[in-house]
């Protein structure tokens, strides 16, 4: 027996696998319109928003790029705190799309603090966008006070982009209530859907920025085009239809079980895992207040080589992920 226990992709429910194996349909058909409507309707219940959500044929990385490429004009100041691999990648990507990245390096066993965020606004009044990783998968850290962070960003009248690739669905992120302008996630993590498909929400305020942008967005990832097509429940280009079937089924399962129960399950599993890891002599990487509820990162007891541990577990049928960047050597 094989068990997949990486921070995503995760194992698929038999119903999701069956859904993916359906016959392909045209993405200009009535059946496709219904599929899109069903995904959006259920996604809204998990994102907790009545606003726009788009289905992207992409993994999480490209979903982050959708957000940045559509918002940024050359020279726009964007604050991106870095406390792990995915924040680092986000900052690189923002630079590639012409953003003037204002960044701080936070220790990789924590996330952004309220004080650090406030300090940015006193230092640089031109920051227009705050873009951050909610759950740093590479370090097993999570922002626990996202509501306070969004309150500060909104009080300054700025836009907030949240990479919730490895957290949306696993913990509450009420997008509309928090005023998150762009929130994005991958299907293959807490939503337990197939890899290769993502969801992105866009607020009215984000639209104002996107529509007033003077520079061109690469046409394949232009959300303005997406919006025109999504109004008729279609995508501008050929999407991964079968993965959409899989995501639709995955979301239905969450709704049937209850979103709150899905969150509770993540919480209980993480508590159990942390207790078991600690009692087995592992060191949890994150400082306690910043411990992720969806991904646990830990170092094995002295004398056990993490690389060999991962290989040995794989040998026994359990796949976990190795650490990333310098974390892998701790
Ligand atoms: C927080 C975060 N952002 C972005 C990504 C990139 O997603 P993907 O590997 O699906 O492109 C990941 C992947 O693990 C992630 O955990």
Structure description:
Helix 7 (175-178) links the parallel strand 8 (159-163) and strand 9. This protein is 42% helix and 14% strand. With 330 residues, it is α/β, with parallel strands linked by helices. It has twelve helices and 13 strands. The strands form four sheets. Strands 2-10-9-8-5-3-4 form a seven-stranded mixed sheet, sandwiched between helices. Helix 1 runs antiparallel to helix 10 (241-257), helix 2 (30-47) crosses helix 10 and helix 10 crosses helix 11 (259-279). The model has no long low-confidence stretch (mean pLDDT 97). Pyridoxal-5'-phosphate is lined by residues 8, 59-61, 64, 86, 133, 135, 137, 163, 165-166, 186. Pyridoxal-5'-phosphate (PLP) binds at residues 8, 59-61, 64, 86, 133, 135, 137, 163, 165-166, 186.
Task: Compose a concise summary of this entry.
This protein has 330 residues and is an alpha/beta fold. Helix content is 42%, strand content 14%.
Architecture blueprint of SSEs:
Layout: E1 3-4, H1 14-20, H2 30-47, E2 52-56, H3 60-71, E3 77-79, H4 85-96, E4 100-102, H5 114-123, E5 127-133, E6 135-136, E7 141-142, H6 146-155, E8 159-163, H7 175-178, E9 182-186, E10 198-202, H8 204-212, H9 223-230, H10 241-257, H11 259-279, E11 283-284, E12 298-299, H12 306-315, E13 318-319
Parallel strand pairs: 1-13, 3-4, 3-5, 5-8, 8-9
Antiparallel strand pairs: 2-10, 6-7, 9-10, 11-12
Helix pairs in contact: 1-10, 2-10, 10-11
The chain binds pyridoxal-5'-phosphate.
Pyridoxal-5'-phosphate binds next to helix 3.
